[in-house]
TrEMBL record:
Gene3D superfamilies, per the entry: 3.50.50.100
Native source organism of the sequence: Mycobacterium scrofulaceum
Ranges for domain FAD/NAD(P)-binding: 3-306
InterPro entries named among the record's database cross-references: FAD/NAD-bd_sf, FAD/NAD-binding_dom, NADH-Q_oxidoreductase
An annotated Gene Ontology molecular function: NAD(P)H dehydrogenase (quinone) activity
Record's keyword annotation contains Flavoprotein: yes
GO-annotated biological processes: aerobic electron transport chain
Keyword Ubl conjugation: no
Keywords, ordered alphabetically: FAD, Flavoprotein, Oxidoreductase
Name of the protein: NADH dehydrogenase
Amino acid sequence: MSAVVVIGSGFAGLWAALGAARRLDELAVPAGAVDITVVSTQPFHDIRVRNYEADLAPCRIPLADVLDPAGVAHVAAEVTAIDTTARTIATSDGATYDYDRLVLASGSRVVKPAVPGLREFAFDVDTYAGALALGDHLRGLADGPPTEAAGTVVVVGAGLTGIEVACELPDRLRRLFAGSGVAPRVVLLDRSRIGSDVGASARPVIEEALSANGVQALAGVGVAAIDEGGVSLTSGEHLSAATVVWCAGMRASPLTEQLPVQRDGLGRVRVDDYLRVIGVPAVFAAGDVAAARMDDDHLSVMSCQHGRPMGRYAGYNVISDLFGEPLLRLRIPWYVTVLDLGPAGAVYTEGWDRVVVSSGAAAKDTKRTINTQRIYPPLTGDRADLLAAAAPQLQSRP
């Protein structure tokens, strides 16, 4: 019996597992000849990109609902070590698992530098648990003394996530503090410029949306320290706020450090056109841990847009590699960004220069379709539906 282990159950990990199950079916591999096991810390597939929203009820899917019908096993444990020589992984509960082929798809996490008070006093929306904690905190403030600081949120980091969080918060705070006399205030700050990575074409749309939503933007200033009373800025100013949300940068899972290869500035490992980790036999990588070439000029970005097809192709290829079958080369010839701007709508761009194609209500409809339909696995519990969705095919533009 052979063993395929997938580390991670996010967008890349889930689809790698289902893609592998589909490829076994295509090759008519007898049942029981290959075990596929997903190892991840939680028994859920989280729709992580929706963590900025107020209602998280639709954002967590039990893995049993999508893996069991496909015949994929799941182990809820934290992977602590990868031994590429022995071809084993170790978990925090002391268990060891052998693999014949491994797919590393353990994702990324928000960067938390050594800013005094950051870990003690700031919130984030990096995980489902983190987003829930932020929601509980805000509701607690609304039930407490009606102070100006209680209704003030500082969002640190004005990249894609920070902008979405900041645009969502004013309306959310207004509902929470309705009738209290507290005027909600949201401040979005960045040590660079607001939306520096969203493209020149989209920046005016985003600036207009921030203004329409009542978000105060501070550019060119960093955070010196955070305490329970607010944020001290590198400019010397102190912002009184009961809530700080940290959205300043992402880095690949530290499990990439277990592989004997160099990593890029984001902590990612290099993979070839077939998602094989270059220089490490029997190991594939997909999603935020992998730097994969999307075309002749661009590498993948940390996004579900790239993580999902990378997972599907990795799943197909890991089984093909196991049985000596031809592998599929991954190339994604288009790139889009759809950024939620709260009540101001959304902005939809195409191309690596992020040229605006639509904005406002039209873009919001596209974003809503992506968030509630396009990025979800089939929830029918039907094996055929799940394996069909795992085909190594590229979706068209949204």
